[in-house]
Design brief:
With 182 residues, this protein is of the alpha+beta class. The protein has one domain (22-155). The protein has 5 helices and 11 strands, in the order βββααββββαβββααβ. It has a 6-stranded mixed beta sheet with strand order 4-5-6-7-3-11. Strand 1 and strand 2 form a beta hairpin.
Amino acid sequence: MSQTIADGFDCSTCKEHHPELPMSMAFASPDFISKMLPWDQESRCKSSEDWYIVDDSMFYIRGCLEIPVVGGGQPFVLGIWSTLNENDFDTTMELWTDPSRINEPPYLGMLSNDIPTYTNTRLLQTKVQTRQSGERPLIFVPDKHPLGRDQRDGITREKVIEFAQLVLHGRSDNPYGYLCEK
């Protein structure tokens, strides 16, 4: 009998059974900002849960990178950050609550987080596709990178468990402490 996402998982880290497998995890901010000293963040950044502006010259948007799960009914979703150029960022802000925003073409950006279990994800080119008002944009990465291939082809339940174990338990040397279940 095969397991489903809802069956939870037996954790190799704590040796316990977790009754649910988290299917959504998110970065609280772009890596550049999470590494800033708190007083620099306060003086240099304007922000909301969905966007950051640094020094009035760097623009970030929060979005969802959805990865199908092989044999699963719902995708695994990473809440990540992408840069946008100033014009695209301004357009995004102008259309934030406008229903016509779904007609916008994808914006180009660069991924702003190092994603665990993948190498060299920060600065990967992204396409940021606006969705209906109230939904964060979808973020796509190129197929030439393993993350892009997984986004296209899907990942196994075991890979989702690997993410869950990193988030739920971390390690003292885990640089992904700011990745959390979301």
